[in-house]
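protein under study:
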Amino acid sequence: MNRFWKRPARLLDAVVLALAVPTIAIAATMTSTDYGQAKDRAKADYKAAVARCDTMKGNDKDVCKAQAKAAEKKTIAEAEAAYKNTDKARRDARIDIAEADYAVAKAKCDAMKGNDRDVCVKEAKAAEVKAKADAKATEKVAAVRQDAAEDKRDADYKVAIEKCDAMSGPSKDACVASAKSRYGK
C-alpha cells in the first residue's frame, strides 16, 4: 500500500515541475530600450507579413493574416513578460499566446464545412482553454514555491537564532547579526 501513495506523489511532483518550466524559460529580463525595439520589430514584421498575404486569395489569405497577427501578438507578449519579469506578466503572455493560436486555428477551420468545421473549432477552443488553464496554474505554482521558500527561510532563521541563545555577550551579538544578514531579517 505504501507504493500506491508514492506513485501519485511522484506524478504530482512531475506535473508541478512541468508547469514551472515555462515560467523559468520566459524569466529573462529586458531593458525598456530592448522592450521598445522588440515591439517595433514585431510591428514591422507584421506589416511585412501582411504585405505577403495580399498576394493570396480566399481562406489562405485569412489564415496568413491571422498568422501574421498572432506572430506580432506573441512577440509583444513575450517581450512584455520579459520586461516586467513578474509571474502575472508571464501568465498574461501565455494567455495572449493561447488566444493568438486560437485565432489562427479558427481561421484554418473556416475552410472546412459542416461537422468537420464544428469539430475543428471545438478542438481549437479546447486547446485555448487548456493553454489558459496551464498559464494560470503555472502562476499559482510559482506563487506557492515563493511562499514555501519564505517559510523555509523563516524556519532556518529561527533555528539560527535559537543556536545564538546558547551564547552570550559579543559572540551572541555577532551570531544574531550574522543570522539576520544571512536570512534577510
